[in-house]
Amino acid sequence: MNQHIHCKSTPREIAPGVQWLGDCLAQHANGKIYHTYNAAYLVIGEEASLLVETGHPKDYPLLARQLEKVLKGQPPLRYLFVTHQETPHSGGLGRILEDFDDVILCGDMSDYHLAFPQFSHRMSALALGDTIDLGNRLFRVVEPVIRDLRTTWWGFDEKERVLFPGDGFAYSHYHEDGHCGLFAEEAVSLNIPEVSAVFADRALFWTKFTQMDLYADRLEKLVHELDVRAIGPAHGLPVIDPKTTFPKIKAGLIYGSSVPESGTETGPTRDKSST
Ligand SMILES: [Fe+2]
Ligand SMILES: [Fe+2]
Ligand SMILES: [Zn+2]
Ligand SMILES: [Zn+2]
After folding, report:
1. What would the pLDDT profile of 176-194 be if each residue is shown by its tens digit?
2. Residue 148 backbone dihedrals phi, psi, to 5 degrees
Protein backbone atom coordinates (compact mmCIF):
# COMPACT_ATOMS: atom_id res chain seq x y z
CA MET A 1 0.00 0.00 0.00
CA ASN A 2 3.04 2.23 0.01
CA GLN A 3 2.25 3.69 -3.37
CA HIS A 4 4.29 6.75 -3.86
CA ILE A 5 3.17 10.16 -4.88
CA HIS A 6 6.22 12.14 -5.85
CA CYS A 7 6.87 15.14 -3.73
CA LYS A 8 9.17 17.49 -5.59
CA SER A 9 10.51 19.04 -2.46
CA THR A 10 14.09 17.98 -1.99
CA PRO A 11 16.90 18.91 -2.39
CA ARG A 12 16.33 21.84 -0.10
CA GLU A 13 18.93 23.80 1.85
CA ILE A 14 18.20 23.80 5.58
CA ALA A 15 21.29 25.84 6.53
CA PRO A 16 24.18 27.23 4.45
CA GLY A 17 25.93 24.20 2.92
CA VAL A 18 23.49 21.65 4.33
CA GLN A 19 21.15 20.05 1.80
CA TRP A 20 18.08 18.01 2.70
CA LEU A 21 17.75 14.98 0.38
CA GLY A 22 15.57 11.91 0.17
CA ASP A 23 11.89 11.21 -0.10
CA CYS A 24 8.69 10.35 1.76
CA LEU A 25 7.13 6.96 2.33
CA ALA A 26 3.33 6.81 2.50
CA GLN A 27 1.52 5.00 5.31
CA HIS A 28 -2.16 4.74 6.07
CA ALA A 29 -3.50 5.09 9.59
CA ASN A 30 -6.53 6.63 11.27
CA GLY A 31 -8.17 7.05 7.84
CA LYS A 32 -5.45 9.44 6.66
CA ILE A 33 -2.41 9.35 4.41
CA TYR A 34 0.59 9.86 6.60
CA HIS A 35 4.01 10.41 5.12
CA THR A 36 7.32 9.81 6.75
CA TYR A 37 10.64 11.03 5.43
CA ASN A 38 13.60 8.77 5.04
CA ALA A 39 15.92 11.70 4.63
CA ALA A 40 19.60 12.02 3.95
CA TYR A 41 21.59 15.25 4.33
CA LEU A 42 24.64 16.52 2.53
CA VAL A 43 27.08 18.66 4.51
CA ILE A 44 29.42 20.60 2.25
CA GLY A 45 32.79 21.76 3.55
CA GLU A 46 35.55 23.61 1.69
CA GLU A 47 37.45 20.42 0.83
CA ALA A 48 35.04 17.55 1.17
CA SER A 49 31.37 16.73 1.42
CA LEU A 50 29.75 14.32 3.84
CA LEU A 51 26.48 12.47 3.45
CA VAL A 52 24.43 11.75 6.58
CA GLU A 53 22.30 8.59 6.12
CA THR A 54 21.46 7.01 2.77
CA GLY A 55 17.65 7.13 2.74
CA HIS A 56 15.39 4.15 2.22
CA PRO A 57 16.70 1.41 -0.11
CA LYS A 58 13.91 2.19 -2.61
CA ASP A 59 15.01 5.83 -2.81
CA TYR A 60 18.57 5.25 -3.99
CA PRO A 61 17.91 6.10 -7.67
CA LEU A 62 16.36 9.40 -6.54
CA LEU A 63 19.14 10.05 -4.02
CA ALA A 64 21.78 9.41 -6.69
CA ARG A 65 20.15 12.00 -8.96
CA GLN A 66 19.85 14.50 -6.11
CA LEU A 67 23.49 13.97 -5.15
CA GLU A 68 24.61 14.56 -8.70
CA LYS A 69 22.70 17.83 -8.72
CA VAL A 70 23.85 19.20 -5.35
CA LEU A 71 27.46 18.04 -5.69
CA LYS A 72 27.90 19.90 -8.97
CA GLY A 73 30.76 22.37 -8.52
CA GLN A 74 31.19 21.35 -4.86
CA PRO A 75 33.97 19.49 -3.03
CA PRO A 76 33.66 15.75 -3.67
CA LEU A 77 31.75 13.31 -1.54
CA ARG A 78 34.36 11.77 0.78
CA TYR A 79 32.39 10.57 3.80
CA LEU A 80 29.19 8.71 4.54
CA PHE A 81 28.03 8.88 8.16
CA VAL A 82 25.15 6.60 9.09
CA THR A 83 23.47 6.95 12.49
CA HIS A 84 22.69 3.23 12.75
CA GLN A 85 22.29 0.01 10.78
CA GLU A 86 18.55 0.03 10.09
CA THR A 87 17.59 0.05 6.43
CA PRO A 88 15.94 3.52 6.20
CA HIS A 89 19.29 4.92 7.36
CA SER A 90 21.89 2.63 5.83
CA GLY A 91 20.06 0.76 3.06
CA GLY A 92 21.91 2.55 0.27
CA LEU A 93 25.43 2.32 1.65
CA GLY A 94 26.65 -0.52 -0.57
CA ARG A 95 25.57 1.44 -3.63
CA ILE A 96 27.17 4.66 -2.34
CA LEU A 97 30.48 2.88 -1.72
CA GLU A 98 30.24 1.36 -5.17
CA ASP A 99 29.37 4.60 -6.96
CA PHE A 100 31.78 6.90 -5.08
CA ASP A 101 35.26 5.36 -5.00
CA ASP A 102 36.69 7.81 -2.46
CA VAL A 103 33.94 7.58 0.14
CA ILE A 104 34.79 6.31 3.62
CA LEU A 105 31.92 4.90 5.68
CA CYS A 106 31.90 6.38 9.23
CA GLY A 107 30.03 5.80 12.46
CA ASP A 108 29.60 2.62 14.48
CA MET A 109 30.90 -0.03 12.08
CA SER A 110 29.35 -3.12 13.67
CA ASP A 111 28.65 -5.85 11.13
CA TYR A 112 28.97 -3.84 7.91
CA HIS A 113 32.14 -5.77 7.03
CA LEU A 114 30.06 -8.97 7.05
CA ALA A 115 27.65 -7.59 4.46
CA PHE A 116 30.32 -5.76 2.45
CA PRO A 117 33.67 -7.51 2.95
CA GLN A 118 34.87 -5.94 -0.30
CA PHE A 119 34.60 -2.48 1.32
CA SER A 120 35.94 -3.31 4.78
CA HIS A 121 39.09 -1.24 4.12
CA ARG A 122 36.87 1.82 3.59
CA MET A 123 35.19 1.77 7.01
CA SER A 124 36.18 4.05 9.87
CA ALA A 125 34.80 3.47 13.36
CA LEU A 126 33.91 6.69 15.14
CA ALA A 127 32.68 7.30 18.67
CA LEU A 128 31.57 10.17 20.91
CA GLY A 129 33.53 13.37 20.31
CA ASP A 130 35.33 12.20 17.17
CA THR A 131 35.39 14.72 14.36
CA ILE A 132 35.70 14.72 10.60
CA ASP A 133 37.31 17.77 9.01
CA LEU A 134 35.51 18.77 5.82
CA GLY A 135 37.66 21.86 5.31
CA ASN A 136 36.80 24.80 7.55
CA ARG A 137 33.87 22.74 8.77
CA LEU A 138 33.94 20.09 11.49
CA PHE A 139 31.43 17.29 11.74
CA ARG A 140 31.30 15.84 15.26
CA VAL A 141 29.88 12.61 16.68
CA VAL A 142 27.55 13.51 19.55
CA GLU A 143 25.47 11.77 22.18
CA PRO A 144 22.64 9.71 20.66
CA VAL A 145 19.94 10.48 23.19
CA ILE A 146 17.29 8.42 21.39
CA ARG A 147 19.11 5.18 20.63
CA ASP A 148 17.09 2.98 18.37
CA LEU A 149 19.97 0.52 18.29
CA ARG A 150 22.80 0.12 20.78
CA THR A 151 25.16 1.17 17.99
CA THR A 152 23.48 4.53 17.29
CA TRP A 153 25.49 7.75 17.05
CA TRP A 154 24.27 11.22 16.17
CA GLY A 155 26.13 13.84 14.17
CA PHE A 156 26.61 17.59 14.50
CA ASP A 157 27.78 20.19 12.01
CA GLU A 158 29.77 22.64 14.11
CA LYS A 159 29.80 25.37 11.48
CA GLU A 160 26.07 25.95 11.18
CA ARG A 161 25.22 24.09 14.40
CA VAL A 162 22.96 21.53 12.71
CA LEU A 163 22.11 18.39 14.67
CA PHE A 164 21.53 15.12 12.78
CA PRO A 165 19.61 12.97 15.26
CA GLY A 166 18.67 9.94 13.13
CA ASP A 167 15.57 8.56 14.80
CA GLY A 168 15.31 11.41 17.28
CA PHE A 169 12.66 13.98 16.25
CA ALA A 170 10.77 11.26 14.39
CA TYR A 171 7.23 12.10 13.32
CA SER A 172 5.07 11.74 10.26
CA HIS A 173 3.48 14.56 8.25
CA TYR A 174 0.27 15.03 6.27
CA HIS A 175 0.78 14.59 2.56
CA GLU A 176 -2.77 15.84 1.92
CA ASP A 177 -2.03 19.12 3.68
CA GLY A 178 0.98 19.69 1.43
CA HIS A 179 3.55 19.20 4.17
CA CYS A 180 6.03 17.33 1.97
CA GLY A 181 9.18 19.38 1.63
CA LEU A 182 8.24 21.85 4.36
CA PHE A 183 10.18 22.68 7.49
CA ALA A 184 8.39 21.87 10.75
CA GLU A 185 7.77 25.57 11.27
CA GLU A 186 6.03 25.88 7.88
CA ALA A 187 3.71 22.89 8.34
CA VAL A 188 1.21 24.89 10.39
CA SER A 189 -1.55 22.26 10.45
CA LEU A 190 0.82 19.55 11.67
CA ASN A 191 -0.30 18.12 15.00
CA ILE A 192 3.09 17.05 16.34
CA PRO A 193 1.81 14.96 19.29
CA GLU A 194 -0.49 13.03 16.93
CA VAL A 195 2.15 12.36 14.28
CA SER A 196 4.72 11.46 16.93
CA ALA A 197 2.27 8.85 18.24
CA VAL A 198 1.78 7.44 14.74
CA PHE A 199 5.52 7.14 14.25
CA ALA A 200 6.12 5.64 17.70
CA ASP A 201 3.61 2.93 16.78
CA ARG A 202 5.45 2.03 13.64
CA ALA A 203 9.09 2.41 14.38
CA LEU A 204 9.87 3.49 17.93
CA PHE A 205 7.74 1.02 19.79
CA TRP A 206 10.19 0.70 22.66
CA THR A 207 9.40 4.28 23.66
CA LYS A 208 6.06 3.00 25.00
CA PHE A 209 7.86 0.93 27.62
CA THR A 210 10.19 3.53 28.99
CA GLN A 211 9.97 6.74 30.96
CA MET A 212 10.11 9.07 27.99
CA ASP A 213 10.23 12.32 29.94
CA LEU A 214 13.79 11.42 31.00
CA TYR A 215 14.82 11.09 27.36
CA ALA A 216 13.00 14.30 26.46
CA ASP A 217 14.82 16.21 29.23
CA ARG A 218 18.16 14.84 28.11
CA LEU A 219 17.37 15.80 24.53
CA GLU A 220 16.55 19.33 25.64
CA LYS A 221 19.88 19.49 27.48
CA LEU A 222 21.79 18.34 24.39
CA VAL A 223 20.05 20.88 22.13
CA HIS A 224 20.85 23.60 24.66
CA GLU A 225 24.47 22.55 25.27
CA LEU A 226 25.29 22.33 21.59
CA ASP A 227 23.43 25.56 20.89
CA VAL A 228 21.63 23.79 18.05
CA ARG A 229 20.34 26.16 15.35
CA ALA A 230 18.76 23.61 13.01
CA ILE A 231 17.84 19.94 13.15
CA GLY A 232 17.97 17.45 10.28
CA PRO A 233 16.11 14.32 11.41
CA ALA A 234 15.84 11.20 9.24
CA HIS A 235 12.07 10.92 9.57
CA GLY A 236 10.64 14.20 10.83
CA LEU A 237 10.52 17.52 8.99
CA PRO A 238 13.67 19.62 9.44
CA VAL A 239 13.54 22.13 12.27
CA ILE A 240 14.98 25.58 11.61
CA ASP A 241 13.79 27.30 14.78
CA PRO A 242 14.51 24.91 17.67
CA LYS A 243 13.52 27.49 20.29
CA THR A 244 9.94 27.53 19.04
CA THR A 245 9.64 23.97 17.81
CA PHE A 246 11.57 21.96 20.39
CA PRO A 247 8.93 22.32 23.15
CA LYS A 248 6.28 20.98 20.75
CA ILE A 249 8.42 18.04 19.77
CA LYS A 250 9.26 17.33 23.37
CA ALA A 251 5.55 17.24 24.22
CA GLY A 252 4.97 15.05 21.15
CA LEU A 253 7.59 12.53 22.21
CA ILE A 254 6.09 12.20 25.66
CA TYR A 255 2.55 11.96 24.30
CA GLY A 256 3.54 9.47 21.55
CA SER A 257 5.08 7.15 24.09
CA SER A 258 2.13 7.41 26.48
CA VAL A 259 -0.71 6.27 24.19
CA PRO A 260 -1.30 2.57 23.62
CA GLU A 261 -0.51 1.05 20.25
CA SER A 262 -3.27 1.91 17.79
CA GLY A 263 -2.90 -1.33 15.85
CA THR A 264 -1.14 -2.12 12.64
CA GLU A 265 -3.54 -0.68 10.09
CA THR A 266 -7.00 0.77 10.27
CA GLY A 267 -7.56 -0.10 6.64
CA PRO A 268 -6.60 1.64 3.44
CA THR A 269 -7.59 5.19 2.85
CA ARG A 270 -9.35 5.57 -0.47
CA ASP A 271 -6.98 7.27 -2.86
CA LYS A 272 -8.85 9.73 -5.05
CA SER A 273 -6.08 9.99 -7.59
CA SER A 274 -5.66 6.32 -8.50
CA THR A 275 -7.75 3.27 -9.25
FE1 LIG B 1 15.96 3.22 13.68
FE1 LIG C 1 14.65 5.26 11.51
ZN1 LIG D 1 3.79 14.27 -0.99
ZN1 LIG E 1 5.58 13.65 2.25
Report:
1. 899 999 999 999 999 988 8
2. -80, -35
pLDDT tens track for 96-126 = 999 999 999 999 999 999 999 999 999 999 9
Helices and strands counted in the chain (H then E): 7, 13
Nearest alpha-carbon partner for 193 in 165, 214, 220, 212: 212
The DSSP secondary structure of 5-49, one letter per residue, reads ---TT-SEEEETTEEEEEEEEEEEETTEEEEEEEEEEEEE-SS-E
The predicted pLDDT at position 74 comes to 98
Mean pLDDT of 63-70: 97
The H or E element containing residue 65 is: helix 60-71
Distance of CA 23 from the midpoint of ligand 3 (Å): 9
Whole-prediction pTM value? 0.92
Q: Ligand 4 center to residue 53 CA distance, Å?
A: 18
Please say whether the beta carbons of 140 and 129 come within 8 A: yes
Q: How many residues does the chain have?
A: 275
Q: How far is the CA of 188 from the centre of ligand 4 (A)?
A: 15
